[in-house]
Structure formats: C-alpha cells, structure tokens
Design a protein that fits this description.
1 helix, about 140 residues, two-stranded antiparallel ribbon, Pnp Oxidase, Chain A, mainly beta
Length: about 140
C-alpha cells in the first residue's frame, strides 16, 4: 500500500545560496489560459484550446538569522542587475530519501519581507521571500 508523503520533510536547493533552514515552501502552481473559439458553422458550442502557460510565484519562509544571502540576492533586483537562479524543491520520503523533485527555472526574488517584531510574543522571527519563476517541472 502506498502512503502519501508528509509535508515537513523537504529540501530546497538554490544555485549559489545555502538553502538549509526553510520552514515553509508554498505556491507551486502551474496554469494555462483557456482560449475560447467558436466556429461560424457551430451555433451552440464553443471550442476550448490551451493558451499561454503561467507559473505562480513561490513563497519561501525561514527563521530570521544573520545570513544575508537572500537579502543580497534581492538587492541585485533593486540595483537593476537581476541574478536569475535555478532551484529545486525536493520532497523526501520517510527514510529521508528524495521522492519528488520540482525543478524551478530562472527564478528571481520579487519580494522580500522582513520579520514581524513583537515584544510581547515568544516566537521565532520569520522572514519571507517570494520568487518569480518562469517554469516549474516535475523531474
């Protein structure tokens, strides 16, 4: 019997950036526009064809540390010297072996959100980065 994979066992690889320590990855979405087309001889039906494919932005979250690699990468976008990177999200099985791998192409940080600070809270400070991606493929 095949059991579903648990969502807490994953790795994230990003070209040139240490990717350990991410607590959450979300937004792995793929969609295609639908083009509706009606032939003049068919008065009651609309044909549907696939249009452009789009990939949603992927959000990464991790505990805030003194590591500035993500901030430095975001700064390349702000400075007009955008560095696009390939990445992979790897879901692990119970034995912590790779089970599923999503390949991400030409990503760049579209948004970086610093930690929310609250003097009355007792929680880890979390930073969030949103990656704009051009393609996602199951490898």
């Amino acid at each position: 019997m095949s059991y579903p994979y648990t969502q807490f066992n994953f790795l994230l690889e990003i070209d040139g950036i240490t990717a350990a320590g991410f607590t959450e990855v979300s937004g792995i979405t793929m969609e295609s526009d639908v083009i509706e087309y009606r032939e003049g001889s068919d008065a009651t039906h609309v044909r549907k064809m696939p249009g452009l494919s789009k990939y949603g932005n992927i959000t990464l979250k991790r505990g805030f540390t003194d590591n500035t690699e993500l901030w430095d990468w975001r700064k390349t976008v702000i400075d007009g010297q955008t560095e696009r990177k390939d990445a992979a999200i790897i879901l692990l099985n119970e034995a912590r072996e790779p089970a599923i791998r999503w390949e991400i192409r030409n990503a760049f940080p579209a948004k970086l959100e610093g930690a929310t600070l609250n003097a009355t809270a007792n929680e880890t400070a979390i930073e969030s980065m949103e990656l704009a991606v051009e393609a996602v493929a199951l490898a």
